[in-house]
UniProtKB/TrEMBL annotation:
Gene3D superfamilies the UniProt entry points to: 1.20.5.110
Protein family (similarity comment): Belongs to the BRK1 family.
Protein name: Component of scar regulatory complex
UniProt subcellular location: Cytoplasm, Cytoskeleton
Lineage start: Eukaryota, Amoebozoa, Evosea, Eumycetozoa, Dictyostelia
Gene Ontology BP annotations: actin filament organization; cell motility; filopodium assembly; mitotic cytokinesis; pseudopodium assembly; regulation of actin polymerization or depolymerization
Amino acid sequence: MSKTNIQKDWEQREFVEDMSINIQKIIDFLNKFDLATKNKLAELNEKLTTLDRQVDYLEASFKTVQSE
């Protein structure tokens, strides 16, 4: 290999290494985003469930008052 070929080879290796690092950073970000999103959706689901139960209770109370 000539000097230019060796230099090109190293440049290509550096490029591949940089791409690998950047892809890993993107993967880490997406994994953290996924976890955060799942947690927030779970919290929202709990709040909606609580509200749904409260509405059911209020509806039942209203029907009881209406029938009296």
